[in-house]
Amino acid sequence: MAGRPRxxxxxxxxxxxxxxxxxxxxxxxxxxxxxxxxxxxxGRLHVGNARAAILNxxxxxxxxGSFLLRLDDTDRARSTVEFAQGIEADLAWLGLTHDAFAxxxxxxxxYAAAAERLKAAGRLYPAYETPEELDRRRARQRxxxxxxxxxxxxxxLTGDERARLEAEGRTxxxxxxxxxxxxxxxxxxxxxxxxxxxxxxxPVLIREDGAFLYTLPSVVDDAxxxxxxxIRGEDHVVNTAAQIxxxxxxxxxxxxxxxxPMILDVDGGPLSKRLGSLGLADLAGQDIxxxxxxxxxxxxxxxxxxxxxxxxxxLAAEFAFSKIGHAPARLDPxxxxxxxxxxxHMKPYDExxxxxxxxxxxxxxxxxxxxxxxxxxxxxxAVSEPLEPxxxxxxxxxxxxxxLPSGDLGEAAWGPWTKAVSAATGKKGRELFLPLRLAxxxxxxxxxxxxxxxxxxxxxxxxxxxxxxx
RNA sequence: GGGGCCUUCGUCUAUCGGUUAGGACGGCAGCCUCUCACGUUGCAAAGACGGGUUCGAUUCCCGUAGGCCCCGCCA
Length: 470
Description:
By secondary structure, this protein is of the alpha/beta class.
């Protein structure tokens, strides 16, 4: 924490907010953990966003802190209320509740005030190049093998030149003047990081049309809303250097940072190309269990085995930055399917009661065999409604009918009964059991017969063994 | 072109310079008196390449190759 470069003098604190972490009165001097998930409502959530949301949520809950949902809707042209609602629905599907909510479009005056303070401090300067000029300039730099960094030509403009440009009708955009010195922080995942802001362009904070770009609102909100930890993907690592300078220029406390590696697609390529098919709404439509996604996103790329967890609380208890590796990890959508099936096999009856006929005992008898919840109803029909038995071996079926124990058929009935049938017919193994299964259930696969038989019942079993529809 | 990060079984990873390189997922095989599933036991499966340092390198250093990220008036 100490010893961070503060080459620029700090300007006075934000008039409306705090510049330090809140302290609980009477509590030890320990800042409360406060994290945020900050999607832009320009689309629905996909697995990439979900990872950010989940990791932040888990850390907040593990540390007893709070989780803020912040809609970064500074891009008013692309942001919609429908997407904002969709994102909330996506989070609700995952079970990621938030403790606080903010919307950047509600906070423009705050950003304007911060911008004014940066201007007063000489850190925010007007530039008049058009996007096309900048594009051309970058292309030229690249062609000459130079890094496409803004050359700060606007900084050299005289007052007269500026006046002339404005007279021509040009409106400036505003850039933050970087220190051009190394920025260092200790990343909770990556360890010590050093980025030399001399290798970066001065970031544009305000567009020509007056709109705030992501960078300034993000920093102002993180400071103003007392975010203690910024947990995000490594695509933000370089931004972080510039953002730290902005925190410092605003005299705000710099939060802790944790940048986790990107997720790759199953072939090791960028996931972004496949994000279209990995939207949360799509996954929900494919009956993926939200805890399958939560479990995968919490465990992928970590030293923990990728196993399903039934609750977010378990995942939170197991969360640790130190378990997260530094290399990008591949996402196999098939894992989501596998985890969903495993979760299904773990489901207690009360969670599926509405979708599963037959009661708890029946559920426990069949759940380990299911690929999907929908199959449960089919098995209930197979034991409780008339079906056409399949007769494969009349001798076996006749012996089975003759030897069927009297009275109620419990789970214990199957073993002795089939042994007796085996003794009577000389059949064993597949030749014995497959005809019985076909006759009793009309199918050649399914849950264990000893568990199914009690639900079929003596009377119906007898009829089916006799080849009758029952 | 520049900067950052990375490279161990198919996949995710463990390894404080000395290990039969461990685990998990997936795969395969056996067992669980039938199938599928569950469970269980077992098997196969890895240090990108080239140098250097060292008694000894997967581990430290350099280089090469490959991958990911960033270099936007997007977020």
